[in-house]
Amino acid sequence: MIFADDIAICATSEQELQTIISVFYYTFKEFGLQMNLKKTEILHQKSSTEHENKEASNIEIEGKELLVVSEFKYLGTLISDKATLDVEIQARINKATTAFWKLYQRVWKKKAPHTSHKSTNIQNNDLTLPNLRLRKLGMDSKAHT
Q1: Residues β-bridged to residue 132
Q2: Staple 1 to which of 8, 32, 79, 118, CB 3.0 to 4.6 Å?
Q3: pLDDT attached to residue 72
Q4: Are 92 and 26 a contacting pair, CB within 8 Å?
Q5: Contact partners, residue 9, CB within 8 Å, separation at least 6
Q6: What are phi and psi of 130, to 5 degrees?
Q7: Beta partners for 67?
Q8: Could you tell me which residue, 46 or 9, shows the higher pLDDT?
Q9: C-alpha distances out from residue 24 to 4, 16, 17, 19, 28, Å
Q10: Is residue 16 predicted with pLDDT exceeding 80?
Q11: Angle at 13 between CA 91 and CA 59, to 5 degrees
Q12: pLDDT tens figures, 94-123
């Protein structure tokens, strides 16, 4: 998958991944582009038959070993080596909780806005503005009388 300057490469074996990354690296080089090896990471998602203690991938470019990580963010989505969405779901729940808490603190926790304008009629769920009257539950608008 390629999006702007982000690329995610999928391979079925370590040897296949090494070949694909090498082809990308040298093709980029031919066109005057440079792959940032400090930002290039390897994530190995183990299959259900692989042992948990299997050695990490050893992918190299020009003698430099690429960093192996257990999770990374690609286009805003957290991808983990467990091949599940648990980490991503928890991250999104945390973001939603933070956003809700900020909204709660700024809006809902505060008392109702105070107004000294005499054209607010809370008793009938109406809001009367100088030339317009809007019903809270209706779609009608009437000229102010």
Answers
A1: 129
A2: 8
A3: 82
A4: no
A5: 17, 20, 21, 24
A6: -45, -45
A7: 41
A8: 9
A9: 15, 12, 11, 9, 6
A10: yes
A11: 75
A12: 999 999 888 888 887 776 555 555 554 445
SS3 134: strand
What's the pTM value of the predicted model, to 2 decimals? 0.55
Burial of 87 (0-12, 13-18, 19+ CB in 10 A): middle
Distance (Å, whole) CA 58 – CA 64:
10
- Which amino acid appears at position 111 of this protein? K
| Per-residue three-class SS string for 29-76 | HHCCCCCCCCCCEECCCCCCCCCCCCCCCCCEECCEECEECCEEEECC
Rounded Cα distance, 88 and 101, in Å: 20
Determine the 3-state secondary structure of 78 from DSSP: strand
Kindly state the tokens that stand for 71: 């999770």
